[in-house]
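At this stage, I put together one protein's amino acid sequence and its backbone structure tokens, which the following lines show:
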Amino acid sequence: MRAIGTVLRGSKQAHKSIASSLYGYRAGYAGMSGLPRLSALNKAYSTEPPKNDPKPESPKNESNSEQPKENKSETDSERFPSRTFGGPEPRKERLFPESGPLSLPGIGLFVLTAVGIFYYFTTEKERVQRERQEKLRKVEYAGKPEVGGAYELTDQDGNRVTDKTFHGKFHLVYFGFCHCPDICPDELDKIGDALDILDAQAHTKDKVQPVFITCDPQRDPPEAIKEYLKQFHPKFVGLTGTIDEVRTACKAYRVYFSKPPKVAENQDYLVDHSIFSYLMDPDGGFVDVYGKDKDAKFMAEDIASRIEHADMNKLRAKVMKARLTKSPDLANLEKQLEAAMNSEGSDSHGSKQNKVVVLPQVDSHGRRLPTRNDAREREASEELTIQQMARLEKETEGDDTTDRELAAQIVRDSGFSNDLEYMNDNVERLSRRRQEKSSEQRKQAAIQDYKKMEAALDSCDMCFKQTENPDGSTLLNPPGYPMIALGNRVCLMLPNREPMNDGHCIIAPIEHVAGSSLKCDDDMWDEITNFMKCLMHMFAARQKGVVFLETVLSVQPSKAGHCAIECIPLPLSKTQDMPAYFTESLVSSDDEWSQHRKVIDTTVKTTSVAPKDDLHDQDANHLQARQAIRRGGFRNRMTAKMPYFHVWFDPYGGMGHIIENSEKFPPWFGREVVAGVLDLPPAVYRKPRRLKESHDQRCDRADEWKKQFGWSKFDWTKMLEAQ
């Protein structure tokens, strides 16, 4: 037993020595990740009882147990005072630990970061708002609101009038009602005072027509309006009508009016309405609006400046037309223009004004588009009307059309299946439109398109060049082509190269239209058709026929030239064979295998619907008659999104061809066919010699052409001069 006790005492000493060495290892490498395991091992091998635990009782078997003698020699703790033996000391609890996610430095850093982020976003938001306000104040991008439109009302004398009744002079339109106690009389007095100021000046006298439109037609008959307007100014014209007619006029001018819903028959009431005076130009277009904050003097000065500007533009147009036609009144008109410019310069002498450049909104093809009101911006999720879809197609032509957006949605859909069931289940996602561009993005896009248009105008020989005079005024110079006739939107000119034969001429829009005539609007096409008809009648009087040719080799505005339709006369005996010649030539053109038909018939096929003689349903009969569709036609069968060639045998159509390879298709294709019929040499139609002519020489050549063919008898533009 004594041997066993000795062994046990030896094992305890060994365990104590191991624990001491382990604690020394922990003290030397306290930062290592194995610290908790060493602490647990220290507890396991420690022979000292915990402080809070009761002391263990000594064994009762005194005979077989012998108390160990104390070793009074130097202990390990005395030899190594930096080490800890016997067990870890209890740690002191702290409010914030030295390490971990909730340490005091970490919390301080988090608070400082949060304060910094809050301060940054607050100051950044204020800075962005300031920059926006500064840009709005300095912006040189403006548009024309869509105010004004067609209406039909009854004037104060009982006559039916429309919006076109007041065309020819500036007119100031105000909406109100005769029973208004204070606001309407004040505004009408202000308009009357402004008219008195304008009539006192010679150049603005009798050039503004005031118009009053009632918002309360139930209580404002024509005779009541006539008596009411006598109090303000004798030039006032009062208009009234049915409630639907008045509502149509108010809607055209974006005027709000509201009548109380429940009103007795003889009960007095007030009509809530917009308080603005709308200034319209002689063509019925919107010019400006004046609110309650504008006095009579301001209105008179602003209207007078706009009248002077319009008169100056008319005088410049007359001078330009006189230069083109070599009119004997040219010298007199130039003197009037010079006197008007000197008068305008003397009036503004000494006044320093900032020059404001109005940037029109143009699409990617250089066509001007009216700007829409930002207050009526459509949301991306809203359904579009037919008018909005047509406008969107014009604005985004060549950029992001509806088909491209649908294709983009299909590409993003990895699980797309080309079946109706899948499309019906995912119609909302597939038809989701892209978000509208911001105002800044639209502005930058308009600026880029405007620069492209200006570059195209500078390099185009068929465009009217605008030059700036030293006094700041501008003047339009005619193109380098002999001018035959000028319409409002389209002109007739002679080529600036050697013509193929006598009578060779060109129909072109005055405004720069890149490439295809399909980009022209309805007004342009009306004038193009008028020129075609007049030329056909003129050549028919001399036993000649005529063909009209158009070749578009590129749809990119930067590469496409000015839109032009060539008119080539030929003997009447050969005119009937021209469709066969062009058909044979088009079939053999391009590659043998093509995606489109070689020849596309563009003749107009009309289907008329005769209305039934039914007095009880005239509206339905009228609607049925107007639903007569026109099948075919150049504008319905051809597209401006692809290069093409087209020939007209009359103003109503002919045949077309889609050019699939523009590099191989000759630009003189149409002229080559005509030259083959007329037995002309290749030098005439391939690259004719350019004529170097002065302005007087071009005018002389145009006059000779007019006399040779008697153009004055067939010139439809004379009707415009009479207007």
The first strand starts at residue 152 and ends at 155.
